[in-house]
Amino acid sequence: MAQRRGIKRAGHWCAETAAGVDPPCLQPHTPQPRVTQDLIPAPIRKFALDHVDSIAHMEALLILWRDPSAVWAVEQVAQRLYIPGGEAAGVLLRLEQLGLAQQHGGAYRYAPASAAMAAHVDALAALYSTHLIPVTNLIHSRRDSRVQEFADAFKLRKKGDRS
Asked: What's the CATH code of the domain at 96?
């Protein structure tokens, strides 16, 4: 059996380094900056949090956005997203309610309610294509905060405490 060389700390072996320098496993952890905060401009972050409920919503929005002249049936979107038709119908209806899509005879097309909204979608789509993980983390953070709000509603409070 080969003999290990290095330092053993907390049950883990660290590689041996030059004298006087701690190996990486013993160096203090430096927290990394929040990538989402740094890469996603505040107006786009707010737009995403206000208008994108889930990754399915983001992907459906992108399907419509890629070809604004195309009209998509609910089943086509469902197949593209690998989700049930009922779920796709709900996603598309929500995009319509948010002013991002219009319904035409049971099918949908991209139709932002304003030029500003269109610009935000363009910017979000560009970020999503280059920074997938930070954007998906941002979208998931919306869900996580709603779950926390729901859980907080059931916290027991002392009589008279409104916090």
From this structure: 1.10.10.10
